[in-house]
Request: fold
Amino acid sequence: MELSRNRIVILDTSVLISIFEKKIDIRDEISAEIGKAKLLVPRSVLRELKKLYSLSKGSKRRLAKAAIDYIYSAGFKIVESEDEEDVDEDLIILAKNFDAAVATLDKELINKLRKEGIEIITWKNKRFKLV
Reply:
């Protein structure tokens, strides 16, 4: 399936954490599925990761820290949030504003995105797929 938009993909918290759980290269995975894409991280997602890091212990804390560090080292574009309180709503608003797909593993968010007609990239059959 080909992404019909401008090849912009917004990454959510679950995907950024999964990079380290599954030991995958998100750029390669998304590229293999839809071609070259610009990857964006909303400030709300960055805040959520920082909160996870500060409030969690053990592997959750390590994964959150690794994801935060990766966002900066990989040079993903960090975009301002439209909804500071609700990360899911922020992702929906930003996806509409940027005419973008959202990469997520969050089933509840996937259902919300489907209802809004927003393209979704998720983990399926051991790889990221446009669904």
